[in-house]
Amino acid sequence: MNLSAANHRIPLSDGNSIPIIGLGTFSKPNSTHKGICATSVKVAIDVGYRHIDGAYLYRNEHEVGEAIQEKIEEGKVRREDIFYCGKLWATNLEPERVRPTLERTLKVLQLEYVDLYIIEMPMALKPGDEVYPKDENGKWLYHNVNLCATWEALEACKDAGLVKSLGVSNFNRRQLELILNKPGLKYKPVCNQVECHPYFTQPKLLKFCQQHNIVIVGYSPLGTCRDPSWVNISVPPLLKDKLLNTLGEKYNKTTAQIVLRFNIQRGVVVIPKSFNPERIKENFQIFDFSLTEEEMKAIEGLNKNIRFVELPMWSDHPEYPFHEEY
After folding, report:
1. 138: which residues sit within 8 A by CB, 6+ positions away?
2. What is the rounded distance in angstroms from the CA atom of residue 98 to the CA atom of residue 100?
């Protein structure tokens, strides 16, 4: 795979393509300053990123949309150069909610279509506008939904030209097979967005997805924030790893650049989140070196099979995806 800063798209099974590195825009609405996401997206586009990963849940899609529009008006990019991934949240998995939810995202982004729209997680929560629905005792309100029916509603959105490609996130093998084996399947998932980094290399899920021509998009590719409410903080920070630091010194690269390079050499798309202009630039500088086969094997050997993002608050959900091996 001959990837470069100017040309780093890889093919998807539906004939479209996806840039192998994207900017993650996850943020906590209450603790992120207004405008910082828009500024970061503009910096990223100037640096060479063409893939922006967002979600209605992040409450900043309006800023992403503004930044994209500004760069198009400047003549820096055309709409077709940009690859935007949006996400269908857990409270909108009922088929009749799918299209209105996507249309709301398009309106907020000021776009006519998104390039990729994915089911954010296989666990449905009570339908409605409350994104984190709980009862009066603070107990999560779960919902039972037919994921195949959700998928059919997404297929209809693709037929209507609202989205180019369809995918999923946080699905295990069984949940992927549910969609892949659906009678009358029109479009198969092009990707599965999951946690993926040297401490959690996902070898079995990666192999399964490759066999089915499904691209793995790795979130938290640099490890993750240390928020104990949804993250396993008992795992040591990835970027402090001795081997990764040694390789960074060898190539005159940051540890983060080594980690991202490792995944893209395996064909895994990476979406590091950063609102720091210097880091946004640094994370993109991974096309001017490559790791040897021995180094790739050594990094694979760091796999601890432990995920940072465990989502423990939903571990009793009937569709919690992480109880199974992969």
Report:
1. none
2. 6
| 214 neighbors 192 (Cβ within 8 angstroms) | yes
- Residues 108-153: tens digit of each pLDDT: 999 999 999 999 999 999 999 999 999 999 999 999 999 999 999 9
* Catalytic center residues: 58
DSSP line for 185-246: --S--SEEEEE-BTTB--HHHHHHHHHTT-EEEEESBTB----TTTB-TTSPPGGG-HHHHH
Cα 150 versus chain centre, distance: 19
- In 3D, which of 289, 262, 292 has the Cα closest to residue 5? 289
Q: What's the order of all strands across the beta sheet hosting 83-88?
A: 23-24, 51-53, 83-88, 114-119, 163-169, 191-195, 215-219, 269-270
In angstroms, rounded to a whole number, what is the distance separating the alpha carbons of residues 157 and 101? 11
**122-132: pLDDT as tens digits:** 999 999 999 99
Identify the residue whose tokens are 């107990």: 139
What token pair was written down for 34? 């207004």
- For the segment 303-316, the average pLDDT, to the nearest whole number, is 92
| Structure token pair of residue 202 | 């996902």
Domain boundaries, the chain: 9-314
Cα 302 to Cα 286: distance, rounded to the nearest angstrom: 20
284 to 20, 126, 185, 276: CA distances (angstroms): 10, 39, 36, 13
Q: What is the CATH number of domain 9-314?
A: 3.20.20.100
Query: What is the per-residue pLDDT across 207-258, written as a single tens digit (0 to 9) for each?
Result: 999 999 999 999 999 987 666 776 777 778 899 999 999 999 999 999 999 9
122/148 Cα distance (integer angstroms) = 11
Joined together, the tokens standing for residue 36 give 């910082």
Question: In sequence order, which residues have a C-beta less than 8 Å from that of residue 136 and are 6 or more positions away?
Answer: none
SS3 per-residue string spanning 78-101 = CHHHCEEEEEECHHHCCHHHHHHH
**pTM, 2 dp:** 0.96
Please report which residue ranges of 126-172 form alpha helices under DSSP H: 147-159
